[in-house]
Amino acid sequence: MKNLKYKEDFEQVKKYWETFWNGEIIDRPLIITSFSKDENKNVIAPPYLSGIDGNFEKPIKEFENFCENTIFFAESIPSLNISFGPDTVSYFVKGAEKNIRIESGTAWIEPFINNWEDFGKIEIDKDGEWFKKFLNFYKYASIKGDGKFLLQMPDFHTHLDLLRAIRGSENLCIDLIENPDLIKKILDQIKDIFIDIYNEIYYSTNMKKFGTTCWIPLYSEKKYCAIQCDFICMISPEMFRKFALPYIEYEADFLDHSIFHLDGPGALKHLDDLLSIKKLNAIQWVEGAGNKPHIYWIDLFKKIIKAGKSVIIYPRSFDEIKIFHKELGPERIVYQPLWKIKNLKEAEDIKKWLIENT
């Protein structure tokens, strides 16, 4: 038995996740939500970028305090997010160090590739400051959290997103038009970066023992992660099939379970191609700022589910869950409520209703 201190029903929850990945259910759709044990007490997880200064002890203590005061309900599992910013992977590229900026609660990298031919081969510097700091944080957190909580895989931005980070969006768009063969060659050269970094983290921590999760908090006893490429909003379907699809598919083939982060209406033109990826298990649709919420996209979710993929739904009320359940059915669904659930009774009422209506 490998239960967790902060998730005493972990072994039972594993069974729900296993049936989910098989496209089946036990007695209801899955639910991911957490809330304070005391509804009058607001305890939060460590802030974004915690540990980037090399102080790993503080965020671990803050996270343990958060876990001590939180109910991780249903299929929600306590898991620590380790992030140095959305383009963390680009920090590991040889020659990137002097271009990293940290200020005002955020971090980013300034594009630094002026000419591909002059730069040479893109390589991960495993002896570099940033890679060692990042991996050391994972190792430290693995030891401190062993038997208590899980660690999330990082926010990977590889292939086209990695090139965008170090070259710049406008320049990369021009490159795809003016020098497509070179970009294709570079993408082929860097396709294993995702696998390499994933394995470094996986085998340096206790993930083999407890399983995996990531910033999209689904769970697998095997190798799971979110796959993403935000840059696809800027390219045509034809370019997508040449410069993005093969590498998304390559990463999905490596993983045992995967979900694709589909961000904004501008990415929907690539949905059919994404649904054709056999090893891709699920789609996370994020409507984007200023667009209508999930309840207005039911036909989109029906299409994804009909293609044999699972979805994560972000309802804004209990009434919306009832509508989604009627329209989409119980299989291949994870609900992650966006409204603030106040207490255990409210959460149990949702679970009970789903069981009774499945």
What does this structure look like?
Helices cover 42% and strands 15% of the residues. With 358 residues, the chain is of the alpha/beta class. It has one domain: Alpha-Beta Barrel (TIM Barrel), CATH 3.20.20.210. The strands form 3 sheets. It has a 7-stranded mixed β-sheet with strand order 2-1-12-11-10-9-8. The chain has a 3-stranded parallel β-sheet with strand order 3-6-7. Helix 6 crosses helix 7 and helix 7 packs across helix 8. The longest helix has 17 residues.
Topology record:
Blueprint: H1 10-21, E1 30-36, H2 57-68, E2 70-74, E3 79-80, H3 88-91, E4 100-103, E5 106-109, H4 116-119, H5 129-145, E6 150-153, H6 159-167, H7 169-178, H8 180-190, H9 193-204, H10 207-210, E7 213-214, E8 224-228, H11 237-243, H12 245-254, E9 257-263, H13 271-275, E10 282-286, H14 298-306, E11 310-313, H15 318-328, E12 333-335, H16 344-356
Parallel strand pairs: 1-12, 3-6, 6-7, 8-9, 9-10, 10-11, 11-12
Antiparallel strand pairs: 1-2, 4-5
Helix pairs in contact: 6-7, 7-8
